[in-house]
Amino acid sequence: MSAVAAQEQRMSDDSRLAGLESEMSHVNSGIAEIRHDVRSLTGELHAFRTEVAKQFGASRAQFDAFRVEVAEEFGGLRTEMTARFESVNTTLEQTKRWVMVSCLSALVTVLTLLAALATLGHALKWF
Question: Domain extents for the chain?
Answer without folding.
Answer: 3-123
